[in-house]
Design a protein that fits this description.
Elements (H helix, E strand, L loop, with lengths): L1 E9 L2 E6 L2 E10 L2 E6 L3 E7 L7 E5 L2 E8 L5 E5 L6 E8 L5 E5 L5 E10 L4 E8 L9 H27 L2
Antiparallel strand pairs: 1-2, 1-12, 2-3, 3-4, 4-5, 5-6, 6-7, 7-8, 8-9, 9-10, 10-11, 11-12
Length: 169
């Protein structure tokens, strides 16, 4: 079992650690746009398909390597194309308080678990990610971990916006 920690360094900047080594980073450039840098060599851009579309693309050098959108159950459905091998995933929360998130493969096996921890002292969030045995070496695992944090943050922003708009009624 492999484990990662994603730490929020600034308001829009997160680093992916494996032990003490930085393996990647997630930077929110603007509303609904982000960059993921993995091992200081591979740069991915996350952008929306269009203003009204819920579909997002993660691109490497202009080529789509991950397409993700939310279905009616609230699950994020992903189709990856890392190293020209198409794989499908589903990402969603579970539990009474919906405080843990899981990435499932096509056979409904858990690839990894994400557990957010909000640090009240610093007002920053850390994410503990546990990759299950047999999935440690799948192509693009670091990018998938960082993309999952992107979706968690997007969902929290959407939930906050929805709650705020209800308060104005």
């Amino acid at each position: 079992m492999k484990s990662y920690i994603i730490k929020q360094e600034e308001r829009r900047l997160y680093y992916l650690y494996e032990g003490d080594k930085i393996e990647g980073k997630l930077y929110f450039k603007s509303w609904r746009k982000a960059e993921i840098l993995v091992q200081n060599t591979t740069l991915y851009n996350i952008e929306s398909k269009g203003f009204w579309s819920g579909t997002k693309y993660m691109k490497e050098k202009g080529k789509i390597v991950l397409e993700f959108k939310q279905n009616w159950k609230g699950h994020i459905v992903m189709v990856s194309n890392f190293n020209h091998a198409e794989k499908k995933y589903s990402f969603h929360s579970k539990g009474v308080f919906k405080n843990k998130y899981y990435l499932y493969d096509e056979e409904e096996r858990v690839v990894f678990e994400v557990e957010p921890h909000f640090k009240w002292k610093s007002f920053k969030t850390e994410f503990n990610i546990s990759v299950n045995a047999g999935h440690e070496n799948i192509s693009g695992i670091e990018a998938l971990c960082l993309a999952s944090v992107y979706w968690i943050q997007e969902k929290q922003q959407d939930d906050t916006a929805a709650t705020s708009s209800l308060g104005m009624l």
